[in-house]
Design a protein that fits this description.
2 copies of one chain form a homodimer. Chain A is an alpha+beta fold. Helices cover 41% and strands 20% of the residues of chain A. Chain A has helices at 6-15, 37-54, 81-92, and strands at residues 20-21, 28-33, 59-63, 66-71. Chain A has a 4-stranded antiparallel beta sheet, with helices on one face. The longest helix of chain A has 18 residues, at 37-54. The first copy, chain A, is globular.
Chain lengths: 97, 97
């Protein structure tokens, strides 16, 4: 899996409005907010099935109604198309910014 | 909900072998490990039901087969019996250290 070029990365980030590039440029992050704790956990379960299917797993933290997600491709040492696909899948599962 | 006394805290930590006091003394933390990502998520779901029932929610991070948990009682500004009860509930749900 090849790292995204700078151009591919910038195009993806322009589409993924709620996601931001990490300071080191190796990951994208997004904060999801939900109506409450059960909704946040339900999101994590749905996203977990997507992650397992893609064999591409997030680093994520839950505090009450909030889920902070970080996506990177460790094997490649940075961002790949797999991270963009997972970000898009998570966006489809909802939550607000 | 009253903060634990130092003695109550030390007695609880002696029982909760896998948990450690945070540097600021306001929380207990534990790393749980599982056989894989689905097992880690299954643990989180089971623990989430305990947390919601107790209305006492963890701060936790999942990376693949690992779940790092932090328990504190924000309203009290530190550790209370609610944190100890939640730690014990999570221990009963399994995982290795």
């Amino acid at each position: 899996m090849a790292l995204l070029t700078n151009r591919e990365r910038d195009e993806a980030l322009a589409r993924l409005e709620a996601w931001v590039l990490s300071d080191d440029g190796k990951a994208v992050t997004r904060r999801f907010r939900f109506d409450g704790f059960p909704a946040a956990i339900a999101f994590m379960v749905r996203a977990a099935f997507e992650a397992e299917k893609a064999d591409h797993h997030p680093e994520w933290t839950n505090v009450y109604n909030r889920v902070d997600v970080r996506l990177t491709t460790h094997d490649a040492g940075g961002l790949t198309a797999r991270d963009i696909a997972m970000a898009e899948a998570m966006d489809r599962l909802g939550g607000t910014g």
